[in-house]
Specification:
With about 150 residues, this protein is mostly helical. It has three domains: about 10-60, Arc Repressor Mutant, subunit A, CATH 1.10.10; about 60-110, Arc Repressor Mutant, subunit A; about 110-150. Helices cover about 70% and strands about 0% of the residues. The protein is built from nine helices and no strands. Helix 4 (about 60-75) crosses helix 6 and helix 8 (about 125-135) runs antiparallel to helix 9. The chain is elongated and about 60 Å long.
């Protein structure tokens, strides 16, 4: 029979189409792409070729991914550096890349405005503000600075 199953058609083109579908939802780390391709049954040799091709074309870039992820987590989900670091590690990003991404994203983040909004939201209850900041993964030293500035 001339029928060929999709599962047996594990070529570079199908791997790239799959990666394209993944990237429609959000940027991905190199580790995620490798993991997802291996879960789909692509060979390690093919995965290496595809990843190198994506890196050369700058579609796959852990530096950019980590920065955009950190920026989004800070600005949209209001997660702190500890939580962002944990999530990026789970996504296979190395510690040096995480450090650079967090440093860059933190420079652009208006933490003071976020704290001011929390303070108003919690009826000027500093204890609730501190608890929220701890839960969201902010550094204790930053939280102590907030306490000092609010007195």
């Amino acid at each position: 029979m001339g029928y060929r199953s999709k599962k047996n058609n594990k070529n570079e083109e199908s791997a790239l189409r799959y990666v394209e579908r993944l990237l429609r939802y959000r940027l991905r780390s190199e580790w995620e792409i490798r993991y997802r391709l291996s879960q789909k049954g692509f060979s390690e040799e093919l995965i290496n070729r595809v990843v190198e091709k994506l890196k050369r074309s700058r579609i796959l870039d852990d530096e950019s991914f980590a920065y955009m992820f950190a920026k989004s987590e800070l600005e949209v989900k209001f997660h702190g550096p500890y939580m962002i670091r944990r999530k990026l590690r789970e996504l296979g990003v190395d510690d040096d890349t995480i450090d650079r991404a967090l440093k860059r994203a933190w420079k652009e983040y208006d933490f003071t405005e976020f704290v001011r909004n929390l303070y108003e939201k919690h009826g000027r209850d500093l204890k609730k503000v501190r608890e929220t900041l701890y839960r969201k993964g902010f550094d204790p030293s930053i939280i102590e600075d907030v306490e000092i500035n609010r007195r």
